[in-house]
Amino acid sequence: MDTPVATSVGFDALGLSPIIVESVLKLGYESPTAIQSQCIPHLLAGRDLLGQAQTGTGKTAAFALPLLHRLDLNLPRPQVLVLTPTRELALQVAEAFQRYANGLGGFHVLPIYGGQGYGHQLTQLKRNPQVIVGTPGRVIDHIRRGTLNLEAIRTLVLDEADEMLNMGFAEDIDWIFDQLPPGLQVALFSATMPPEIRRVAQQRLVDPVEVKITAESETVETIDQQHCIVTRPHKLDALTRIMELEVFDGLLIFVRTKNATLELADLLKAHGFAAEPLNGDMNQELRERTIERLKQGQLDVLVATDVAARGLDVERITHVINYDIPTDPAAYVHRIGRTGRAGRTGRAILLVEPRERNLLRSIERTIRRRIPAMELPSAAALSQSRIDRFIAEVRKTLLEQDLDFFYRLLARINQEQEIEMLDLAAALAYLNQRERPLNIQEDLPPAAFGRRQDASDRQPRQRERGAKRQEERSWSERPRHADRFAHERQPRAERTAESDLVPYRIEVGRQHGVTPREIVGAIANESGLAGRYIGRIEIHEDHALVALPAGMPREILQHLKRVHIRGQALRIRPLHAQPETRFAEDGRNRPRPQENPARPGRDETAERGFKPAWGNPFAPLPGRKFRP
User: Fold this and answer.
1) Where can the motif Q motif be found (predicted)?
2) The model's pTM
């Protein structure tokens, strides 16, 4: 049954030793959380315990503090074994034990996990640490090698037991139980209580105390949550706007796949953010180094998958952004639990595509509260924020820097060039902000945020189906240069000349469910190319052809190759073939790019740095900066 919530007491009233209480208070903890208040007295008494609590409720301290109290520091053998599902969580728990035991002389804790060399672990095991924290697989390896002595183990802790069972460790856990001495104390912690966890509790725990802390009383209440509806082609713009206006210390961004961590981290670095990926393909040394950089303030943003970030506890993380909404509501609670931990406040923002509204509702049902909607920062707000920072930098420079040389330089320019000081200042301000404009024009349509542009339309589902049928029609049935987006309508004279376009092939087609709108959105968003410069699109079974301006810069072409649509990399490349064989429906013949006879297969116009009459179509959009 659920244990009643304890009244607020201090750590010194729970029966812990004064040395441990002093260490906890030095770490900044003022009073125990609900799960700590309820678990610590029972674990101090040696009772078995079944605890149900979400991540971020302070459960590590709930078992670490009483077990430290019960240690015999004069016995140089492992006395406590903690099993965790991931190496990240093993490291986190081991670090917590070390922090709480700061005043205990002779205490040693050792994390053991796969991915780390045996040599280091064997050396540390010879020091006979009192606490072992490890993943089931590596613990079993050491038991079978005879390098982990279990004779003095008095307490076993299963942390995030449901996750260990989900990862297939059920048989490993049973095997480890069979190797342990009889009569030991067992503490099992789990975010959920599926039948498998109940089975383990019934078979392995003796008369356990059951403690249950609901998510809404802990993790959710300490986190300010909001969601934003945004279409997929505009998610990156939405993310960078949020990151630019939110005041954060450390930021954790969640995506669904390992590849997405690499791609999004690269894009954020191109926008000037100190971001790095964190995924399961990274070796353990690199992951540990990346997390340490975040802790030390050398890195501000991590782009991670669920598995890689499980157990991650970095105090600097003030914000969590779900770039990809999780399909499992429980994963959402785990994700946002990386901030607002142990009573600290945090902020979580969820980006939701229009078609994912049902997932949002499922999450709201799970956490039993609504997640309020937020307005995406407007171009005006972004401009004002940049202007405010610019003014602050100017004032700081005037106060802190020696500007005598520059005063003389400007006076000289003013005299020799007869340029007024205000004109000179305006020109210098313009030059300073060219790569990051202060005056940003709104270039995202209302539809980008899931809002309908036609308020009189009262049948959104029928309109959506109609739009889909329109997209699936053959491109040749549409008018030449048909508008892709309503906000991009241009006078006919300003549209791209067909003769200036060359065909490119991309490796995503009808079998992947791609639409022309998605192709235009991805290319325009990732290259900075305005949609009006994108010509004819033909979608075939396994690929598509798209007409783009000649002279595409190499760095943009290389970047577009890595862009994904519908889970498929574009792998874009020029299509060197007679245009009429690929674009024959309109009956026109477009000129074939001239080849350089000295360098066969090369587009001569591209080598000359071809610039069409309308200017450089690949120039960065306002407010965007492209760095390959």
Assistant:
1) 9-37
2) 0.46
Q: Please name the residue that has the structure tokens 């008369």.
A: 207
For residue 297, tell me if it sits in a domain. Answer: yes
Residue 412, token pair as written in the block: 């000289």
**Per-residue model confidence (pLDDT) at position 436:** 65
| DSSP helix/strand/coil, 304 | strand
Distance between CA 256 and CA 26 in Å, rounded? 38
Q: Last residue of some domain: 193, 213, 233?
A: 213
410 shares a domain with 281: no
Using DSSP bridges, classify how beta strands 209-212 and 49-52 pair: parallel, antiparallel or unpaired. parallel
- Strand-by-strand arrangement of the 209-212 sheet: 109-112, 131-134, 80-83, 155-158, 185-190, 49-52, 209-212
Identify the domain boundary among 168, 190, 213: 213
DSSP state of 6: P
- Which portions of the chain are predicted below pLDDT 70? 1-9, 54-57, 214-221, 308-311, 341-344, 382-383, 434-436, 439-499, 576-628
Task: Give alpha helix (H) positions in 180-257.
Answer: 195-204, 235-245
Return phi, psi of residue 305, to 5°. Answer: -95, 170
Domain range spanning residue 526?
A: 496-607
Q: How many structural domains does the chain have?
A: 4
What Cα–Cα distance (Å) separates residue 14 from each residue in 17, 66, 208, 279, 335? 9, 9, 19, 40, 31
pLDDT tens for 586-607 read 333 344 444 444 334 433 333 3
CATH of the domain at 319: 3.40.50.300
Return the residue matching tokens 């789990």.
190
Element (H, E) at 62: helix 59-70
pLDDT digits (tens, 9 = 90+) for 417-446: 888 888 888 888 877 776 667 766 655 554
**Do 153 and 264 lie in a common domain?**
no
Q: How far is CA 390 from the centre of its chain?
A: 29
pLDDT of residue 602: 38
User: What tokens appear for 25 in the block?
Assistant: 């208070």
pLDDT score, position 403: 85
Could you tell me where the beta strands, DSSP code E, fall in 213-345?
223-229, 250-254, 275-278, 301-304, 317-322
Paired tokens of 439 = 């005056």
Q: Of 227, 235, 165, nearest to 193 (Cα)?
A: 165
DSSP state of 418: -
Neighbouring CB atoms inside 10 A of 236's CB total 19
- Whether 483 is in a domain gets the answer no
User: Which residues sit opposite 321 in a β-bridge?
Assistant: 253, 349
